[in-house]
Every structure is written in C-alpha cells, then in structure tokens.
Amino acid sequence: MLIQHYAINPWVGYVIATLMLVAASVAGRALRVRRLRRHPDAVPPKSFIVKVAVFGLLALMIGITFATALTHVENRIKAKSEEADAIAATALRADLLPEPQRAAVRKLLDGYVQVDTDLMNDSHDSTALDQAASRSKQLQAELWSHAMAIGAADSKSATTELFVHSLSEMINLQEKDLAAVRSRVPSEVFLLLYGIAIVAIGSSSYLGGLAGRPGRTPDALIAMVIGLAIGSVADTDRWQVSNPSMLSRISHNRN
C-alpha cells in the first residue's frame, strides 16, 4: 500500500479530506471568476450532464467501497466468534488431561489468550500485529508439541483425541482471523475516491458559476458531506472486534 490509511485517526483524516475538497471548491470558483472577467459575454456551458456524470461516478464508487468495508467487518466478527469458541473448547478439554500436562497446557493457553487479546488491540499497528502473530505461532508450536507428547503416551484415549482436534481447529481458525484482520480496502481506492471528489467539487464550482448559479456555501457544504461519507467508509473499514462480550468469551478459560 502507498499509505497505511488505517493507522491515521479517522477524524484527522476527515478534517484533511474536507479541507482538500473545500480547497477544490475555492479553486473552481476562482477559475470561474477569472474566466467571467476575461469573457463576460461567453455562452454558459450546459453543465448539468457533466455534474451528474461525475457525482454519479463518485456515488457509485463510495457505495461499492462501503459495501466492501462492511463485508470485511462481517468477516472479522465471524472469524473472531469462531476462534473464541475454539479457544473455549480447547480450554475445557485441557481440563480433562492428566497432570502434569494439564497445568502446562493451561499455562500456555493463558498466554495464548493474552496474545490473542493483543492482536485485537494492536490490529491497527502493523508492526505490533506482526509481533503478536509471531508470539502466537510460538505458543501454538509449544501447545502442539504437548499434544503430540500426550498422544504418544496414550494414543487410544478419547480425551486426547478431542483435545488434539480442538487444538488443531483453534490453530486453523486463528489463521482465518488474521486474514480477516489484515483484509482492508486498499489505500489506492481511497486516493481514487478523493481524486474523483476533488474533480467533482471543483467542476461543480466552476461550471455552476458559469451557468449563472454561483454559491460558495452550497459547494462547501457538499464538500463537507462528501468528506464525511468517505471518512465514514474508511472508519468502517478499520473497525475491529473489541466488544466486552467477545473478549469475555475468549478470556473465560483464564478464570
């Protein structure tokens, strides 16, 4: 990505984007005034079709991007819910293991839950996310080595089979969860949206005035609304699962 847009505070991004769009509106108005001074008798262009086409394209692009962002959010909720259930099942079945394996596995699961919580809290920081994912891989390897040792000692135990199955599912689901966390609308798409919005606002200010409908305030309001719409899409795309109920489901094996 050219810009890690999800590392920027959404309100800061909204202010910057709105200022850019308002600047485009001012620039369009300035060009309009300049042309009217040079060519006061010029025939006003038919701007309606152009404005409808540009704003229509912008609305379509925002709608598609918002739908994509909502899909990402739904995938994260589903992946985290499935992983939480898998961790809870693994913790419950770990209680059925014999000592000293039970204590060792429970300790590793406690650390795994903490790392998984860090993954949720650090999802907007790519460096912290990679570090937490690496630590999670290490804990998974240690848990799996314990599972293999337990299976070698008693391969016919139904409890061991259930524990190994739950552990395998927990590991696989974390890969799915990480993929959902890292799934984002590319920054290039947001740059394209802002580019189209700048052209739309600038052309609206320029052509609208030439057609005899000047207005600084309406153009500024349109710029603010478009900036808010794009900023809301970006904020939706960066949303992560962090509600108390989900955290309690993941953490319940620590109690």
Question: Mind explaining what this structure looks like?
Answer:
This protein has 255 residues and is mostly helical. The chain has one domain (5-254). Helices cover 80% and strands 0% of the residues. It contains eight helices and no strands. It has helices spanning 10-38, 48-94, 101-121, 126-153, 158-182, 187-210, 216-237, 244-251. Helix 1 (10-38) runs antiparallel to helix 7 (216-237), helix 2 (48-94) packs antiparallel against helix 6 and helix 6 runs antiparallel to helix 7 (216-237). The protein is rod-shaped, with a radius of gyration of 27 Å.
| Tally of contiguous helical segments | 8
Q: Which class of secondary structure composition applies to the elements?
A: mainly alpha
Give the N-terminus to C-terminus distance in angstroms. 41 Å
Count of individual beta strands: 0
What's a concise summary of this model?
This protein has helices spanning 10-38, 48-94, 101-121, 126-153, 158-182, 187-210, 216-237, 244-251. The protein is mostly helical and 255 residues long.
What are the SSEs and their pairings?
Blueprint: H1 10-38, H2 48-94, H3 101-121, H4 126-153, H5 158-182, H6 187-210, H7 216-237, H8 244-251
Helix pairs in contact: 1-6, 1-7, 2-5, 2-6, 2-7, 2-8, 3-4, 4-5, 6-7
